[in-house]
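> @MW can you paste both from yesterday?
MW: sure, first one:
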Amino acid sequence: MRKGAEIDIGAWTGAQHTKGRVVATGNQKPGDLVIWKRSGSKPDATTHVALFLGDDKILEASPPRNRQSVRISDLTSHGTPYSEVRRVFG
């Protein structure tokens, strides 16, 4: 998820949450970044970024770093609601 289509979105969540433009939560489209933040923290205290695929599915990468680290998951799989949606393309 770091670099594609000749657009560098950064290598960590702190950089990724500044790319593109904010889209209203719930109005995400396939290809948008879905961002989770710590509640009550600084606005840039991100914890996870995933790529929205549509149909409430995301493409994400997270530890452990093995064959299962990159996977398709449910948008609600993290238990807490996502905080922000950013559109980098379009």
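MW: second:
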Amino acid sequence: MRTAEYTRRLGVPKMRARDPLEVFRSSSPLELFLDLVFAIAVSLASAQLFQAETTAHIGEGIVAYLMVFFAVWWAWMNFTWFASAFDSDDWCYRVLTLTQMAGAIVLAVGATPAMVDGDFGLIIGGYVVMRLALVAQWIRVACSHSSVRRTALRFAAGISVVQVLWVLFAFVPDHLSKLIFCVLVIAELSVPAFAESAGRTPWHPGHIVDRFGSFTLIVLAESVLAATTAAANAIEQATHLRDFVLIGLSGFALAAGMWWVYFSTDARAWLQSRRNALTFGIGHYLVFAAAGAFSTGIKVLLDFEAGRAAVTGAEAMLLLAVPVAVFVLGVWALILRRHLTSLQSACFVLGAGLIAACPLLSEAWVAPPVAALAAAGVMAALVVVIEVSGVRQRA
């Protein structure tokens, strides 16, 4: 059995594919360890978005955040989908994964210069380290499994070509950088579809759902931290006591509602085809980015109430409410709409619209903390819709 399972080539064990029907497949300790690094990268990107938004550089900050967040998210996606199919957990797999983690650390450090100065040098350098390790993993797969050899070689070749283009991106003139960035994003997103068209890798639908849930918790944790900070500020500062308490309660209620909405059911039954899986994976970019931006929105609203942010009350509420609305719509489109009636879906879309419209209350002489509380009330109504629909009982 050992000989059949570990045919050695140059001292490297044969890579073992995972069973896509494995029962109780969950995140491994190594995957959770890697998630910690990506949590740092998300936190640094959110911190720079906060700096941009509080200094009234909102447009530039959001564009830079979306660019950097794509780099963080796509690196995580590449690892997650590979690990779902080929987590052999031998010494070679662990070494190559830890190498990817080292690259992710470089990427995390590069988030700040990328958002502040538009310098993606460190991020590209981190990607080079991660991609070299990932390509080595796919070559191991090609050498170990003839049934998916074409797919593995396509992944290795596609990742390598696009990575070379990213290295050349460092020399692109500033006025063309955003356009070229979008072209390279399309190239990145095309690699999985191109590779898996030659044959599906044995990724595990339940494991994918579990991994995406873990990343959702990472980005929502930032929001809970911001709400906790509000409560701490309320205790330390006698002034703005009521406002800080309202923001803290609203922020926590919104974060809890987002958690409730996301984890009310899962999409494992839907993730049986390659097309659905790609839609689910790529669509989560907006869900994750919105959750990260929501935590920043809470901090901006706190700074506005403390008189430290160069934004209006309506702008502060906009930066809080719109990410929540995008998150709700994204989860509805990717997961919930298949389990809801037409009327329930309409309520969800309407609820997201009402949350996005809450900043208008600040224009109507309603204090931003009260507008945030109104958004939390709408979120509570969406939770009621979920419970009335019976989605959780059918999960």
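> thanks! Confidence is low (pLDDT under 50) at residues 1-7.
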